[in-house]
């Protein structure tokens, strides 16, 4: 493909990118700025964009204001990792089956999975609450992990299936002719070749799990020690005042793991999401 | 090693019938090539032998044992795929050793077998590399190596050379023939390239539309094609087919070719009668320049040095190709006269069946 643009077009493209990026990043920037200011400066009028008393004090104080903050961050990561791990255990064989095997209602069940994806968890909160209560899972880690897994499996299957379909069938046929069983082929041939795809799906699931845990946490869990960070942030809202600067600092620390994962796995994500788009 | 018998194999995909009652008896240590145009069912037939597809009906017997319902690995076959199907994440060694790993073979014996295969295929230096670091020909050899180590009774090749460039294909052809001699194995080879078929095969199966047109040695196919399809498929350049009318059927077959030339051809005349329309098959290499004979208009002349190939027309625009000597005194756009020996001509009925030639060159084994 040729990508030749006139100067004017280039300016237009970069302007559009800039607008988009600013729209996306400004909240983060504002969060960061807010976290650096002493609380009283946040309400100063007129609003000062730049002030000379920036400090990282809030990053220290937040641990005191909310003593369980460390625990919340751990919970967030723990829940997201558990959801990711359990989801992958279900998704890998399912996606392989959808990619390679023929069975009744294959396309229909795939369509249903897509349909489930269109619901947000919020629609199903009340029935889910009853299910979890019946199973005695309320106020445990499972209350946040089980629904998380359930909602992410369809996405995972759809993503991984398309990746697995890209692996040449002949490789599996060759292994089959040589006497390898399905499981052996999956383990020795398919999965090693699907590593980039597995990473993409894991990251997508992890991010999904990280984002959705708030809803499940505030609905299905009342045990403070088990709350993930998004729910724990509420503790910065006190009876008298809200320590916004510390809350912003804690939120930034909270999104840090996701950002780090993104940075390290970026090349897989880009390669994985576009994989199969063109014939190689 | 083993014989391979196919008994009345039929295969349908849904309502589409792709193979019709295929029965073949392949001898021990024979190199048999399935050849035919794309879509003729040759690959499907090979996959049925391999056990990757199930025949709708019919049975497969390898080495006297009915394996129709056996898993591929229990059939004693191994297969080389068109795309090589190498595992990109494994080294050459591991690729070749894969079938042995599946069998959980002991390390020392596996090592020995892989080394031996690598030795035969000149891959010893490459064992630690990944397939991605190899050339096309080397990859092909790795794929063959993987099929050798299991000591199968029958080797199956699915268009293994079609991904290689022309020069390499020629080399690999020779290597495969040598390998066949070296291994003394029964081999079944699928290709759409008649040159590969002619050069490598002990016997060729010509498939067309899911049916066996003819099964015979390359020279049988060349000198005694059973049908017009086989005659047109085997030989390079392709055989010319000139429409003709039967004038006389006693003794020899006397015909008048398109363009008015009359010939008496020594063929079995059973089944044709005076006035019938037939086609006379003339190979481009069997004609010579002459004073009397077929009137050809030369449209295109290709001088290749050793030979000159002409593309022209005869009679009412029937295409006619001739292969003449390199320095033949002919010119593009001019007419020429060609003669052909009557015993070199083939005659096909309107249903495509041949009239048996009474005199033909002795078959070269």
Write structural notes for this entry.
The complex is a heterodimer of chains A (280) and B (365). Chain A is mostly helical. Chain A has one domain: MetI-like (MetI-like fold), CATH 1.10.3720. Chain A is 73% helix and 0% strand. In chain A, helix 3 packs across helix 12, helix 4 crosses helix 10 and helix 7 runs antiparallel to helix 10. The longest helix of chain A is centred in the first third of the chain and has 32 residues. Chain A is globular and about 75 Å long. With 365 residues, chain B is of the alpha+beta class. Chain B has two domains: 228 residues, 3-Layer(aba) Sandwich (Rossmann fold); 119 residues, OB fold (Dihydrolipoamide Acetyltransferase, E2P). Helix content of chain B is 23%, strand content 35%. In chain B, strands 6-7-8-3-9-10 form a six-stranded mixed sheet, sandwiched between helices. Chain B has a six-stranded antiparallel sheet with strand order 13-12-11-14-19-20. Chain B has a four-stranded antiparallel sheet with strand order 2-1-4-5, with helices on one face. In chain B, a hairpin with a 2-residue loop joins strand 1 and strand 2. Chain B is elongated. The mean pLDDT of chain B is 90. Chains A and B meet through helix 8 and helix 9 of A and strand 6 and helix 2 of B.
Layout of SSEs?
The complex is a heterodimer of chains A (280) and B (365).
Chain A: H1 7-36, H2 39-42, H3 57-65, H4 69-100, H5 106-118, H6 125-134, H7 141-165, H8 169-177, H9 182-193, H10 195-220, H11 229-232, H12 244-274
Helix pairs in contact in A: 1-12, 3-12, 4-7, 4-10, 4-12, 5-7, 7-10, 8-9, 10-12
Chain B: E1 4-13, E2 16-26, E3 31-35, H1 42-50, E4 57-62, E5 65-66, E6 77-80, H2 92-102, H3 107-120, H4 136-148, E7 154-158, H5 166-183, E8 186-191, H6 194-200, E9 203-208, E10 211-216, H7 218-223, H8 228-233, E11 240-248, E12 253-257, E13 262-265, E14 277-282, E15 287-303, E16 307-314, E17 318-325, E18 335-340, E19 346-348, E20 354-355
Parallel strand pairs in B: 3-8, 3-9, 6-7, 7-8
Antiparallel strand pairs in B: 1-2, 1-4, 4-5, 9-10, 11-12, 11-14, 12-13, 14-19, 15-16, 15-18, 16-17, 19-20
């Amino acid at each position: 493909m040729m990508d030749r643009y006139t100067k004017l077009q280039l300016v237009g493209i970069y302007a559009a990118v800039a607008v988009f990026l600013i729209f996306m990043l400004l909240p983060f920037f504002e969060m960061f700025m807010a976290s650096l200011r002493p609380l009283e400066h946040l309400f100063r009028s007129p609003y000062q964009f730049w002030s000379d008393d920036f400090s990282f004090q809030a990053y220290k104080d937040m641990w005191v204001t909310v003593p369980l903050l460390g625990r919340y961050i751990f919970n967030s990561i723990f829940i997201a990792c558990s959801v990711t791990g359990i989801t992958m255990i279900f998704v890998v064989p399912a996606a392989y089956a959808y990619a390679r095997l023929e069975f009744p209602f294959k396309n229909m069940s795939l369509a249903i999975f897509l349909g489930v994806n269109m619901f947000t968890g919020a629609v199903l909160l009340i029935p889910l609450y009853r299910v979890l209560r019946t199973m005695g899972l309320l106020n445990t880690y499972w209350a946040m992990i089980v629904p998380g897994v359930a909602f992410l499996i369809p996405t995972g299957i759809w993503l991984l299936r398309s990746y697995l379909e890209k692996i040449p069938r002949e490789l599996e046929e060759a292994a089959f002719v040589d006497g390898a069983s399905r499981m052996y082929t999956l383990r020795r041939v398919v999965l090693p070749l699907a590593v980039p795809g597995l990473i993409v799906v894991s990251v997508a699931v992890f991010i999904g799990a990280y984002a959705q845990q708030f809803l499940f946490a505030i609905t299905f869990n009342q045990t403070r020690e088990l709350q993930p960070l998004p729910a724990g942030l509420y503790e910065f809202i006190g009876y008298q005042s809200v320590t916004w600067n510390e809350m912003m600092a804690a939120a930034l620390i909270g999104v840090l793991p996701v950002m780090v994962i993104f940075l390290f796995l970026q090349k897989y994500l880009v390669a994985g999401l576009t994989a199969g788009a063109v014939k190689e | 090693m083993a014989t391979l018998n196919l008994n009345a194999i039929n295969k349908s995909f849904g309502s589409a019938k792709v193979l019709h009652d295929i029965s073949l008896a392949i001898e021990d240590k024979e190199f048999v090539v399935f050849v035919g145009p794309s879509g003729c069912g040759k690959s499907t037939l090979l996959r049925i032998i391999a056990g990757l597809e199930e025949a709708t009906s019919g049975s497969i017997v390898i080495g006297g044992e009915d394996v129709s319902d056996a898993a591929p690995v229990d059939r004693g076959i191994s297969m080389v795929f068109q795309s090589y199907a190498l595992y990109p994440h494994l080294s050459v060694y591991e690729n070749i050793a894969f079938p042995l790993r599946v069998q959980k073979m002991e390390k020392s014996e596996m090592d020995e077998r892989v080394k031996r295969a690598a030795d035969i295929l000149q891959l010893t230096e490459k064992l630690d590399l990944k397939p991605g670091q190899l050339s096309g020909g080397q990859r092909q050899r790795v794929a063959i190596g993987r099929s050798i180590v299991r000591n199968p009774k029958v080797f199956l090749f699915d268009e293994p050379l079609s991904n290689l460039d022309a020069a390499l294909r020629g080399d690999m052809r020779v290597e495969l023939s040598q390998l066949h001699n070296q291994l003394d194995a029964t081999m079944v080879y699928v290709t759409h390239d008649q040159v590969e078929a002619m050069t490598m095969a002990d016997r060729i199966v010509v498939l067309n539309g899911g049916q066996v047109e003819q099964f015979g040695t390359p020279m049988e196919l060349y000198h005694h094609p059973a049908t017009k399809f086989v005659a047109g498929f085997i030989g390079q350049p392709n055989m010319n087919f000139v429409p003709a009318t039967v004038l006389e059927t006693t003794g020899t077959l006397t015909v008048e070719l398109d363009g008015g030339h009359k010939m008496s051809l020594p063929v079995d005349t059973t089944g044709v009668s005076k006035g019938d329309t037939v086609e006379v098959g003339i190979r481009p290499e069997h004609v010579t320049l002459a004073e009397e004979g077929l009137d050809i208009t030369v449209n295109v002349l290709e001088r290749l040095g050793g030979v000159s190939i002409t593309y022209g027309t005869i009679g009412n625009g029937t295409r006619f190709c001739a292969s003449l000597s390199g320095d033949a005194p002919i010119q593009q756009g001019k007419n020429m006269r060609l003669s052909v020996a009557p015993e070199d001509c083939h005659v096909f009925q309107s249903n495509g069946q041949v009239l048996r030639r009474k005199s033909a060159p002795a078959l070269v084994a």
